[in-house]
Structure prediction request, 559 residues.
Amino acid sequence: MDVKKISEALSVSAQLSAADLSAAKLAGFRAIICNRPDAEGSDQPGHEEMAEAAKAAGLEFVYLPVTPGIVLDETAEAFGRALAELPGPVLAYCRTGTRSATLWSLSEARRRPLPEILAATKAAGYDMNGVARRIANGGRTPTDTGDAKFEVVIVGAGAGGIAVAASLKARRPRLEIAVIDPADIHYYQPGWTMVGGGVFEAQDTAKTMGSLIPKDVHWIKAAVAAFEPKDNAIVLDGCRVVKYDRLVVCPGLKLDWARVEGLVETLGRNGVTSNYRYDLAPYTWELVQRMNSGTAIFTQPPMPIKCAGAPQKAMYLSADAWHRRGVLKNIDIEFNNAGGVLFGVKDYVPALEQYVQKYGARLNFFTNLIAVDGPAKRALFEVKKPDSEPTTIEMGFDMMHVCPPQTAPDFIRVSPLADAVGWVDVDQATLRHKTFDNIWSLGDVMNAPNAKTAAAARVQAPVVAENIVADIEGRSPVAQYDGYGSCPLTVERGKIVLAEFGYGGALKPTFPKWLIDGTRPSRAAWLLKEKMLPPIYWRGMLRGKEWFAKPEKIVVSPK
Prediction:
């Protein structure tokens, strides 16, 4: 527990655990304010769990969530009221404490002079100069000037962000690049299916962010609040401003767990799990090992989602484990898919259907999870079949693997960069923004009609790097993206259907058919997934080694 005192009434902290609340009580605190939304990261307990722990410790508890980087004046006013009404001293927390410190600064703006606010927060280790500019500017952060400026700024240090930074540095070593991301840990998310299947260990899919940011690339450990492309500016949490010549946007997408009623409260318990979270993938394998009979439900929400095959991968590996133990005959498997097909590229469907039949799984299309009662082990689904009125059905379960609804992050959806439905609006070939010609995007957050996979980002990163360098040199775009994506469908332990495809479902195999026929399950594809892809990711893609990802050149037809 890293507590930082701001005033006699308030201290702030980074993420707390339930166990920390007894220590907070002993330290003299009488109330807790949680400013971090549930399910923001895999390292946090939900607010209901924290409220129960606070009550047990004799502390009052208030949940006042703030989306990363987006601190509204209304929320700051509610924070001020909570401080006035709660017994003090109060301990507020979020991911790092910055949001809590920002709320305090804004709530105190009418009662304290700015120098006093800045001094108090600086003494606690928080730079609120950006907040001061916002206060002085009538509640809006000015972006005509900035706190820092770089030739290229990359928002997001996931697979796409680090790969682009490394690819740019390989082409232009002296380029001044900054990467903006608040996370301490970088995850190899394609490995979580294997963790949930008992093949990988969770810790092998995680490395510290600092160890992966390329040399001589600046890491700004902060959340983005807003984009001001007319001023070539980004507003960060704490209202700091970063300016850029060129911008790359790749923050990934938002797993919207809260959209399913009751899901957040029961994740990781009551038999409800998901391979879409680092901390829950081991629980998937634990449930699979424990289960000898009953009903197992696997869910898939409406598209788009990242790695569209992941929900059924979890089903196949679980069923294979039950088959090997001889208990599959005692287990009813339900695959509830909000869509109308098993997989979006028809060439791979026959092989997948054979495994569905082998495992005796029931396919329920147009069936979307909308609510969960974990303690009762009941789930509610909306069924929306074409040309039919929607209905709801309830199912009991002993185990349920959930794929959450997914959207673009909030700060993207409300920004000038977004299209009508919230994704970054790019040209699908060059990945350049359609309106702002010094902005590019890649990965899960942009609106090109491709599969949202790490394999797609691996191919997109060199395209973006090539086109940024061309732009710096005053040339037109030189590289194009063909929509390539890959989904290694783990149909059983030891065999994979290696789906590789581009725009329009066109097959894009990397290997000759005699080595890996992607439409059939193969041992070679499994070895690729298990043994080759992790080092290709860690040692190749994230270091600017563009193995299997040479950019496709734009061919200009002669006039």
